[in-house]
Amino acid sequence: MTSLPRLVITGSGAVTALGRDLASTALGLAEGRSAVAPVYPDGQAPRGASPAARIASFTTEPELPRAKARRLDRGSLFAVVAARQCLADAGWEMAGREERTGILLGTGSAGAGPLTEFERQMAVESPESASPFLFPYTVANAPASVVALELVIKGPNVTVIQKDPAAFNALFYGRMMLADGRADALLVGAADEWSLTYHQAYEHLRVTRSEGREGFVLGEGAGVVLVEPEESARARGARTDVRLAGLATRPAPCSPHERRAAPDELAETIRAALEEAGASPREVGLVHLSRNGFPLVDEAEEEALRLVFGERSPRTAAVKLLIGENPFAGATQLALAAAALRSGDGLRAILVNAFGAGGNFFSAFLSRQ
Q1: What pLDDT, in 10s, does the model give residues 261-273?
Q2: What is the pLDDT of residue 296?
């Protein structure tokens, strides 16, 4: 078995409903601002059901010219902007490294808007009237493909289609790619777009928040980190102070909608990430919770923290309650964690949890070195 290299996170970027970059998102979270708001479909009055965390106004400039942006889908727009921010943050020059740079994005909803509109045109109007310009963006791998084209990435290109922990699955896969020497650096994260059709489907499943009912809130955006082997990052003069020291996953099948998680299984995932990092629970200064407002998993996560940390639990952050749920949110948490460790505000280690629909559990341990 190929041994895993020491990996570092050298750059991060994000686009969320709280801001078009990671810094403004972090500021909004620090101020306790929420992006959750009523849904106004097509200029109508607000719907009385579940709210959402949508990106109301968004400019792609300077990362992407307006003329080019008009042709792309929302998920791809978010991904391109976040990816460019991430590479700039990492000081990664693409020229001469195109073949050795890769991208792995998770998603739970990319392509939803173009797909539903394309199908509407075919069904309501006629197959001949369906726009050929929409078709390339009706697939979930559109954001990763568009980023690769815009940034001239010619290395591995992978999309992980899953719900909540898709970005962590991409990170898990990317780590193996780097161990095999398939790339020198990987953009890893997730991108999602909000879709009224998906929104209504989740409402029918009765898992989203509404008046009188607890649940999660759908959001949209993109989060990306640049992951490199420490040795090659040092060789190019990059910052290597943030290490991906532990990443663990444990399968624990449960209903994808009722999602009753077992606290001991969640605790085992956390312990496995700590063990891989060679760290003890007392070293963790902050836990980015998977908490999203769905009681059955949120309560299990709280109990899992007690099992791991005892009564002296570290500080926690529940980002998804403010920017919404979807794979992009977990990727944004990874980006926020890396930026916080780099800022030198005293944090030495952060744990990021992603406990997903159907029982796909991940924990990542990031440390400052």
Answers
A1: 789 989 999 999 9
A2: 83
The amino acid sitting at 218 is L
What are the phi and psi torsion angles at 28 (to 5°)? -60, -40
Q: Chain centroid to CA 357: how far?
A: 15
Positive or negative: CA dihedral 180, 186, 190, 191: negative
- At 54, give phi and psi (nearest 5°): -105, 155
The reported pTM is 0.94
Q: Residue 256: pLDDT above 70? A: no
CA proximity to 218, closest of 297, 321, 115: 321
Q: Tokens for 58, please give them.
A: 């968004």
Which tokens go with 142? 């559109």
Domains within the chain, CATH numbers bracketed: 7-235 (3.40.47.10), 245-368 (3.40.47.10)
Nearest to 202 by CA among 332, 51, 356: 51
348 within 8 A of 245, measured Cβ to Cβ: no
Summarised one tens digit per residue, pLDDT across range 185-227 is 999 999 999 988 888 888 888 888 988 788 899 999 999 999 9
Residue type, position 140, single letter: A
Tokens 């990319």 — which residue?
A: 110
Alpha carbon distance 273, 264 (integer Å): 14
Residue 280 tokens read as 């003890």
Cα 84 from Cα 63, distance rounded (Å): 6
- 196: which 2 tokens? 């009224």
Q: What is the DSSP string of 137-152?
A: GSSTTHHHHHHHHHHT
Strands 286-288 and 349-355: parallel
